[in-house]
Design a protein that fits this description.
Length: 404
């Protein structure tokens, strides 16, 4: 019994305050000590933009389904899903071909503070984070957000027959070296440079040899570079959006490999030869260059114009012979989903190796005033290497070897 009844209200009030302060603390402690099912998660929404037939979309959907997040029922997409295992998560799906989907994408990008978001598939907004394309690392990061865990981006990408690599690691530069070098062993372009240098050597002036030789190489690089950049953006904007990128790259590899193998057989039997050397446009451009340099009245503008015209004609005419190499390389860069302008570096690297042999011939001509080029057998066997690389690349993409 209480010795002083008047103190009972004070004691009761103190006890109630104690309970108010203690119980939430005990409950919180139990949540921390309990299983993950006791952890209270905030409501979040996953916005998923897909396209029928998109291989990367199918890969992401399988990844989510294996973790209890189903986006389809009886093969049809559900517009809104609330997974049983994640009751705090709402998944909304959007067909990119449905009217108004592009506006939804822009609204979400603006809401979450993402600029210059293009419509590629798959595109996923999750708790304010943006994911475009899909690989295993992106999937793990998504699940980390959903389950309240911190999963860092390791920066890895998936490259066919190289597996998972980091863009700064060796394989992509190695691919640029291999494809660019094979592409550079083009007898048409090399033959055109040699012809220009032979004409310019008649000046017996290193400055003129350097200027006109470098002008030829620069023109080839600019035109060829513009073609590769165009292919990259077409593949990124159209082929990837249509979900047929892997088939385009695979076809380019197989068809290009067949073309290069046919060239190898011809070179092996008869020696390297440019089949377009007698084409009408090439012949006219060659005559124009020769007449410009031999004409005593031709001024610098006429000489510069003739060299640029000749380089442009040769580059465009011989393009069908080797188009598969830069096309396949552009496709690999698109498929790698490189961040920002990283693709510009790799295209520049490809162009460097593409022009390397001509730079060597050009440098030798400037220094020694003589033209040197190795044995035709070297070009022949490099052509075979190019065929094998293209076949391997094509098979890798068509049959999914090393592709996530």
């Amino acid at each position: 019994m209480l010795s002083d009844p008047e103190k009972f209200p004070i004691i009761l009030l103190s006890f109630l305050v104690f309970l108010v302060l203690l119980v939430p603390g005990v409950h919180a402690a139990r949540l921390e000590e309990g299983s993950g099912e006791d952890v209270i998660q905030e409501e979040m929404t996953l916005h998923y933009f897909y396209m029928h037939g998109c291989p990367a979309c199918s890969t992401q959907e399988r990844f989510l389904e294996e973790r209890g997040i189903f986006l389809k029922e009886d093969g049809r997409y559900l517009e809104e899903v609330q997974p049983e295992d994640y009751p705090y998560l709402t998944v909304k799906t959007y067909d990119v071909y449905e009217p108004g989907t592009d506006q939804v994408l822009r609204d979400l990008a603006e809401r979450y503070g993402h600029e210059d978001v293009r419509m590629v598939t798959p595109t996923t907004f999750l708790d304010g984070e943006l994911f475009q394309g899909f690989d295993e690392n992106k999937g793990e990061r998504m699940m980390g957000i959903i389950e309240g865990e911190d999963v860092e981006d390791d920066g890895m990408i998936e490259v066919p027959f190289f597996g998972r690599i980091h863009p700064e690691d060796l394989p992509l530069p190695l691919l640029a070296f291999a494809l660019g070098s094979v592409d550079g062993m083009n007898v048409c372009s090399i033959g055109a440079l040699v012809m220009v240098l032979m004409i310019v050597l008649s000046f017996d002036n290193r400055k003129k040899i350097f200027f006109y030789g470098f002008l030829f190489i620069l023109t080839v690089v600019l035109i060829y570079g513009l073609i590769i950049f165009t292919w990259y953006h077409i593949l990124e904007a159209v082929m990837k959006h249509l979900g047929i990128l892997q088939y385009v790259i695979g076809a380019a590899g197989i068809i290009g490999g067949a073309v290069f193998f046919k060239q190898f057989i011809e070179f092996y039997r008869h020696g390297p030869n440019c089949e377009y050397s007698q084409a009408g446009f090439v012949t006219k451009a060659r005559i124009k260059v020769k007449e410009s340099f031999e004409g005593k009245q031709a001024g610098p503008i006429a000489l510069i114009g003739s060299v640029i015209l000749f380089a442009a004609v040769v580059t465009l005419i011989e393009l069908p012979c080797s188009a598969a190499l830069p096309l396949a390389f552009s496709g690999v860069l698109v498929d790698a989903q490189l961040v920002g302008l990283t693709y510009v570096f790799y295209i520049g690297l490809y162009l460097f190796f593409y022009m390397l042999i001509e730079l060597v011939i050009f440098t030798g001509a400037v220094i020694t005033k003589e033209i040197w080029f190795g044995s035709g057998k070297f070009v022949t066997w490099v052509t075979l290497i190019g065929a094998l690389i293209l076949f391997f690349l094509g098979i890798s993409y068509l049959f999914g070897i090393g592709i996530a």
